[in-house]
Amino acid sequence: MFVSMKQLFLFLAGLLGSVPAWSQDFDRDFEDATLRLDYVLCGDAHHQAIYFQQAYRTSRWAGRRSNLSEPLLAGNGQVRVLDPETGAALYANSFSTLFQEWQSYEEASRVQRAFENCFQVPFPRRPVDIELYLTDVHGEVTARLRHRIDPSDILVRKVHDNGLSRAVLWQGGGLDRSVDIAILAEGYAEADKAQFYADARRAVRALLGHEPFRSRQDRFNFTAVFAPSQDSGVSVPHEDAWRNTVASSHFDTFYSERYLTTSSMRKVYDALGTIPFEHIIVLANTAIYGGGGIYNSVTIMNSGHPTFDAVLVHEFGHAFGGLGDEYFYDDMYSSMYPSDTEPWEPNLTTLKDFDVKWKDMLPVGTAVPTPVDDLEKQDVRRVWNTFTPAQKAQLNLKVGVYEGGGYQSRGVYRPVQECRMKINECEEFCPVCSRAITRMIGYYTE
Ligand SMILES: [Zn+2]
Q1: Which residues contact 341 (CB under 8 A, 6 or more apart)?
Q2: Vertex 440 angle, CA 435 and 442, to 5°
Q3: How much distance in Å is there from the Cα of 55 to the middle of ligand 1?
Q4: Mean pLDDT for each consecutive 10-residue tract of the chain (446 residues)?
Q5: Distance 252 CA to ligand 1 centre (A)
Q6: Ligand 1 mean position to 313 CA, how many Å?
Q7: Neighbours of 446 (CB within 10 A)
Q8: CATH hierarchy code of domain 165-319
Q9: How far is the CA of 253 from the centre of ligand 1 (A)?
Q10: Ligand 1 centroid to residue 395 C-alpha, Å
């Protein structure tokens, strides 16, 4: 019997499911390759500007092939690939930056500084416009740059394998249907190589052992990249200890002792070279407590502190899930979440537009704001381990609208009394954070 190619295709498509629309849209506009774009973000608390530095063709494309033009969360800025004629978005991603965080510090009121940031978008088949913009705490655009990228431009730098040692630590699925995470060694000398891979495996176990990641392990891939640092350990300025390391990370960011960051994002991306990735964990070889997670930018973690597992999961909650901190101080950073604006973080609200948050998860009859239980009226971190499972569940699972969150004791509300995004002692994400992460995993992989 004669069977045409088309009939054969339709027969196979029937067996396998039809060719998905997402694949066609992606293939029409993009190659299976990554366009890395480097920028300098600069200014102070009052004025910000964006300058383009360099474009690269790096790896295969590890990012989304569906939901291309709409970020799930607004973030503090977006990078967008636009059709030059129509202005239609072909791809968009949202992010936060260390630069914007710095703007809330006093230093930003008196000095102008520059920060480097790198972004990845799928490699366009035709000339496109790239638009990058930053927003303030009210969601208003504060800086915008739009520029043309021609994929045939000879100055788009072609990156070749840098030869660094690497290991796939966990392969849940293919590049196109998984969240791809690169773990980069920071402050590990050549002699620390085995230690790095052991620490990286511990990081994978910590994340994949924690819900809601645990039940979605097949949606994640982890690759560890060993880039040897000249020195062992990372820089600790308050001890006058400066070390030569791959990512030039250091504590005392913005003069806050425990705040470990890197502002050398180009070095991080250079080290990752041709590794396809969507998220970066920089694993810092130090026992000093510290780390940070910046939404769709980077998670940086010390590897040697006993709280490693808990803090890594918390910081990854920021970097991957876009979750806000649910802890608060008395009126510190009170300008970060103004009352006239609903924050974009899914687990915080100012009640400006609570309908878009977890209103649908509130038990019938819940008072807004919700009064805290007597259990919560004590130093919970100190006594957490004395609580029974039922008491912990009461604080972690009883969804309400509790005042205090996002560093502010007033005007910002959190979904439960205790959550992994509030204290390290609390073992689990709250239902609202879990839903936000689950949605994000689906957004990347479905
Ligand atoms: Zn939470």
Answers
A1: 137, 138, 139, 350, 352
A2: 95
A3: 38
A4: 40 43 78 98 97 97 93 98 96 97 94 98 98 97 98 98 97 90 98 98 97 97 98 98 98 94 97 97 96 96 93 97 94 78 98 97 96 95 96 97 94 97 96 98 94
A5: 27
A6: 12
A7: 11
A8: 3.40.390.10
A9: 26
A10: 11
Strand 291-294 versus strand 298-302 pairing type:
antiparallel
Query: Is domain 23-158 classified as CATH 2.60.40.3250?
Result: yes
Q: CA 406 to CA 303: how far, in whole Å?
A: 26
In this prediction, residue 174 carries a pLDDT of: 84
The ranges of the chain annotated as CATH 3.40.390.10 are 165-319
End-to-end CA distance of the chain: 38
Task: Return d(Cα 153, Cα 24) in angstroms, integer.
Answer: 25
Q: Which pLDDT belongs to residue 317?
A: 98
Note the helical H segments in 233-273.
265-272
Check if the beta carbon of residue 240 is closer than 8 Å to that of residue 225.
no
**Which helix (H) or strand (E) covers residue 206, if one does?**
helix 193-208
What's the 183 CA to ligand 1 centre distance in angstroms?
Answer: 25
Question: 431 alpha carbon to ligand 1 midpoint, in Å?
Answer: 7
- Predicted pLDDT at 5: 43
How is residue 331 written in tokens?
A: 């009126």
Q: Which residue bears the tokens 């029409």? A: 28
Angle between helices 308-319 and 193-208 (to 10 degrees): 70
Q: 3-state DSSP call for residue 142? A: strand
For the chain, residues classed under CATH 2.60.40.3250 are 23-158
